[in-house]
Specification:
The chain has 384 residues and is α/β, with parallel strands linked by helices. The protein contains 13 helices and twelve strands. Bound molecules: pyridoxal-5'-phosphate.
Length: 384
């Protein structure tokens, strides 16, 4: 342990949820107190109010608040009737929640490689994965591109492959809500978009939460039914098999307050990313946002030569700088998912990235002196 560094400086947070909590102060307490006063804890007035604000924020016709980002994906797949024998294409370089709902429905996740520059789904590998699925006698049904680390997948490049193969596109925007793609906002880039309000995401609540976005009225109607046990005309009329997939009123109340400061936070996150870019671009492979896109920087992830990552991370740790690896083991290498097919002969880019990525502290409240400490520490650690 580097005791000296610990005493001189306060600990650096990887994501500082407490700093935002201090800023919001009584506004959050008051919002929660209002729910405690009216006692409509489930589907209270905050839920439709939040949905209207989320839809307005991103320009989608419908926003459906749900219990988590994982439930959002599960509900979207349920709405499309995905089941046994169906192939659903997902990148392997993502969090388990992208592929898990596919497997839960006894459909087959088929893993696709990603592009080196963006960390996101490679349309060429998607074509290969469709061929693999067909060879195995599976029916290609849907693709779930992931907007990893806050930047959108290349939906304009994915759309022609998806339409040629008859794939329904579900955008997993758990990390990218608030980002833009060629003048369009995340939430409107695919027929259905899902997001997560897990506390560590760019827009987080104080527990689990998520949302689904769509412009399709019929899809929205089915999703609203599915999130409350497939209800029909009323609560005790069940017309399809659904789940308990609602967002709590208290979480909706928290999110309404957080959404007010979210645009400012997006600007602050981008400023932090720019300073990392300027401070580290010559010593590490820094992330690049494609032309015409913006990122909400769910993570700021650099790449280091595979053989040096552990040593650099250990030096940073000794200097009081927390880091994280997203994701050390891609899904096709996980025990839970190993049995599922991968595109073509393998996923070389995914495997390479898993060995090289390192994420640095990133949040809207990272002040310049603290960030300079991080940048100096990375420069020293990389120099060895
Ligand atoms: C966080 C995350 C999810 C799941 O969200 P939860 O709200 O935790 O269920 C899904 N996909 C990706 C890419 C994520 O990062």
């Amino acid at each position: 342990m580097n005791q000296h560094a610990r005493i001189e400086h306060p600990a650096i947070a990887f994501i500082d949820v407490a700093a935002q909590r201090r800023r919001l102060g009584r506004r959050i307490d008051d919002a929660i107190a209002r729910v405690l006063a009216h006692c409509r804890f489930v589907m209270g007035p905050e839920v439709p109010a939040l949905e209207a604000e989320l839809a307005a924020f991103c320009g989608a016709r419908h926003a459906i608040a749900v219990a988590s980002g994982t439930d959002a994906l599960l509900l979207a797949l349920l709405a499309k009737g995905i089941g046994p024998g169906d192939a659903v294409f997902c990148p392997a370089f993502t969090f388990a929640a992208t592929a898990e709902p596919v497997a839960l429905l006894n459909a087959t996740p088929v893993f696709v490689d990603v592009e080196e520059a963006s960390f996101n789904l490679d349309p060429v590998s998607l074509e290969r994965a469709v061929a693999t699925a067909k060879q195995r006698g599976l029916r290609p049904k849907a693709v779930i591109p992931v907007d990893l680390f806050g930047q959108s997948a290349d939906y304009d490049a994915i759309a022609p492959v998806a339409s040629a193969e008859g794939l329904f596109v579900i955008a997993d925007a758990a990390q990218s809500f608030g980002a833009t793609y060629r003048g369009r906002k995340v939430g409107t880039l695919a027929p259905v978009t899902t997001t997560s309000f897990f506390p560590a995401k760019p827009l987080g609540c104080y527990g689990d939460g998520g949302a689904i976005f769509t412009d399709d009225d019929e899809m929205a109607r089915i999703l609203r039914s599915l999130r409350v046990h497939g209800q029909g005309a009323d609560k005790y009329d069940n017309v399809r098999i659904g789940i308990t997939g609602r967002l709590d009123s208290i979480q909706a109340a928290v999110l309404i307050e957080k959404l007010r400061i979210f645009p400012e936070e997006i600007v602050a996150r981008d400023r932090v990313a720019c300073r990392y870019h300027d401070g580290l671009g010559d010593v590490a492979m820094v992330p690049r946002v494609a032309d015409g896109l913006s990122s909400v920087w769910a993570q700021y992830t650099v790449r280091l030569p595979a053989g040096r990552r552990a040593e650099v991370a250990a030096r940073l740790h000794a200097d009081g700088v927390p880091t994280a690896i997203y994701y050390p083991k891609p899904l096709h290498r996980q025990e839970a998912f190993r049995q599922y097919p991968v595109a073509g002969n393998g996923l070389p880019v995914t495997d390479r990235l898993a060995a090289e990525v390192l994420s640095l502290p990133m949040h809207a409240y990272l002040d310049e002196p603290t960030q300079d400490r991080i940048i100096d520490a990375v420069r020293r650690a990389v120099a060895g």
